[in-house]
Design brief:
CATH class: Alpha Beta
Helix content: 10-25%
CATH topology: Nucleoside Triphosphate Pyrophosphohydrolase
CATH architecture: Alpha-Beta Complex
Number of strands: 9
Shape: globular
Largest sheet: 6 strands, mixed
Radius of gyration: 16 Å
Oligomer: single chain
Structural class: alpha+beta
Number of domains: 1
Strand order of the largest sheet: 4-1-6-5-8-9
Distance between the termini: 34 Å
Length: 159
């Protein structure tokens, strides 16, 4: 019997809202030439030296040049990845709620980011598309309750 070993990986980000309640989204370049760009909440893979909140703050600073102090956990999403590029992994993506201290955003520091915008919450879910994050974000915005979503086959198991 073959036992498959999965590496645990952590990515962290933030749901940043401004005074008007708009959500910060970043439009990232496609991963490969010819891939379409995609809108996302700012997030990065956590480094070994940082806490998840530090990684979330770094993500916002890197992607949009904003300094934030991440507050409470908004939600986390966990899924299994079989990808051949980096090997099998179990990913945890944790998002913290944060309020912007300044209104100015700038994406020119990060070559992966094409654009950064403040978007009304319902528009943010539309730009995120039909994926898991759009639904989870809308759930959190409506309830304000932190939850762990396990994803299988591209859909949250607990919604």
């Amino acid at each position: 019997m073959t036992v498959r070993v999965y590496e645990r990986r952590l990515a962290c980000g933030a749901i940043v809202q401004n005074q008007a309640g708009e959500v910060l989204l970043v439009r990232l370049r496609g991963a490969l030439p010819g891939d379409p760009s995609a809108w996302a909440l700012p997030s990065v893979e956590a480094e070994g030296w940082e806490t998840s909140r530090q990684a979330a703050a770094r993500a916002v600073h890197l992607r949009a040049a904003l300094r934030v102090d991440p507050g409470p956990l908004a939600f986390a999403v966990e899924w299994r990845e079989e990808g051949p590029a980096r090997g099998p992994a179990i990913w945890m993506l944790a998002f913290y709620h944060a309020t912007a201290r300044e209104p100015v955003i700038d994406h020119r520091r990060d070559p992966e980011v094409l654009e950064v915008r403040w978007i009304p919450p319902e528009g943010a879910a539309v730009l995120l598309g039909s994926g898991v994050l759009a639904g989870v974000l809308l759930d959190w915005l409506a309830s304000g309750t932190a939850e762990l979503y396990e994803v299988s086959g591209g859909r949250p198991l607990n919604t």
